[in-house]
Amino acid sequence: MEHFYTIQGEGHYQGYAAYFIRLGGCDVGCVWCDVKESWDASLHPQLSVDEITSNVLASNTEIAVITGGEPAMHNLSRLTESLKALGSRTHIETSGVYELSGTWDWICFSPKKFKQPHASVYKQANELKVIIYNKSDFAWAEEHASKTSTDCILFLQPEWSKEKEMLPLIIDYIKANPKWKLSLQIHKYMNIP
Ligand SMILES: C[S@@+](CC[C@H](N)C(=O)[O-])C[C@H]1O[C@@H](n2cnc3c(N)ncnc32)[C@H](O)[C@@H]1O
Ligand SMILES: Nc1nc2[nH]cc(C(=O)O)c2c(=O)[nH]1
Ligand code: SF4
Ligand SMILES: [Mg+2]
């Protein structure tokens, strides 16, 4: 769908320069998705792996973030092999609904109520990033956290339109349950992609 060089705005690598590759196509249907224009893959141009990776190479970062849409809908073996051959780190943002293909240095798993994750992703995830849209999402976050590996880093991130309402609750929750950390979408405050 698009590719751009920016600052990773979320999660464990928040603040790092990163080259984003956003793949079209998603059938998860989150009501609050902030990139709904990604859902229909046929509306977006197809680029070759070489076209994409040459842009990553031209940037100064060694971090390539594959996102979407739901990137795991696609076979990502060739793309991740090419990125790694260029010396790039491969990071993915995924809802975990599909079994992952490809080789990954960092897996950010953000489960969704709208479609159940695939069982395999829990032990693969390096970070769990749960979006908090309402109060019931805290208990739901714990359910998912209990299935991840012990070294998985746990984040709560407010849904953007509910941030004013949910952030105070998230802060209280993290103070009471400090295994969780806060993730804010800092790129949205900075008005960058
Ligand atoms: C657009 S999604 C694409 C990757 C993948 N489909 C997924 O959902 O993880 C990228 C990240 O943005 C988060 N996100 C999407 N819409 C959001 C919103 N309105 N507020 C906060 N986070 C949001 C998702 O949970 C995910 O962690
Ligand atoms: N700056 C920036 N950081 C991000 N982290 C995850 C994003 C995503 O949409 O996957 C994203 C994004 O869209 N922009
Ligand atoms: S899974 Fe990701 S891309 Fe798909 S609708 Fe949900 S937030 Fe949007
Ligand atoms: Mg985004």
UniProtKB/TrEMBL annotation:
A Pfam family this chain is assigned to: Radical_SAM
Q: Give the binding site residues for S-adenosyl-L-methionine.
A: 32-34, 69, 110-112
**Key words, A-Z:** 4Fe-4S, Iron, Iron-sulfur, Lyase, Magnesium, Metal-binding, Queuosine biosynthesis, S-adenosyl-L-methionine
Please write the reaction equations for the catalytic activity of this protein. Answer: 6-carboxy-5,6,7,8-tetrahydropterin + H(+) = 7-carboxy-7-carbaguanine + NH4(+)
Q: Where is the Radical SAM core domain?
A: 13-193
Can you tell me which residues bind substrate? 7-9, 22, 67, 193
Pathway connected to this protein: Purine metabolism; 7-cyano-7-deazaguanine biosynthesis
User: Could you tell me what this protein does?
Assistant: Catalyzes the complex heterocyclic radical-mediated conversion of 6-carboxy-5,6,7,8-tetrahydropterin (CPH4) to 7-carboxy-7-deazaguanine (CDG), a step common to the biosynthetic pathways of all 7-deazapurine-containing compounds.
Please give the name of this protein. Answer: 7-carboxy-7-deazaguanine synthase
The record's gene field reads queE
